[in-house]
Design goal:
136 residues; mainly beta; Jelly Rolls; 5-stranded antiparallel sheet; 4-stranded antiparallel sheet; disordered N terminus; disordered C terminus
Length: 136
């Protein structure tokens, strides 16, 4: 008996070298997506866009990093168009409108970064210099 969750089988296998771009195929007139990792702190999704396809303007409550693997796309963040090519990355800050249009067939890896809120942060970096931890 295994404790592996069924949805984990669709994720990236551990400890293997893989070609990310080869994990999602282009489809004519479509956008293909594949979630590679889904965790409470982040989601990593691979996208394959046919030329001319895109995502309409929207916002997200989390920062997202688009890393271009193949092709070329225009990513617009808060009204600023950015031409991106293989090897480029664009940070789309939380709550800022963004959109994407594939200029050619285009693949990207999207990392959605969820902020973790803590009730009380007791790390040394979060304390004032005069606020020493109490010893019991």
């Amino acid at each position: 008996m295994t404790s592996e969750k069924p949805e984990a089988k669709r994720e990236l296998p551990g400890a293997e070298a893989l070609s990310l771009a080869g994990m999602a195929n282009y489809q004519e007139g479509a956008v293909v997506s594949r979630t590679l990792i889904h965790r409470p702190a982040a989601t990593i999704t691979l996208f394959a866009f046919d030329a001319g396809q895109g995502l309409s303007e929207h916002t997200a409550p989390f920062d997202a990093l688009a890393h271009v693997l193949e092709g070329e796309a225009e990513i617009t963040v808060s009204g600023k168009p950015l031409v991106t090519k293989a090897g480029h990355a664009v940070l789309m800050p939380a709550n800022q409108p963004h959109a994407l249009k594939a200029q050619t067939r285009f693949k990207m890896l999207l990392t959605m970064i969820r902020s973790q809120t803590e009730k009380a942060d007791s790390s040394p970096a979060s304390r004032d210099r005069n606020d020493k931890p109490k010893r019991e």
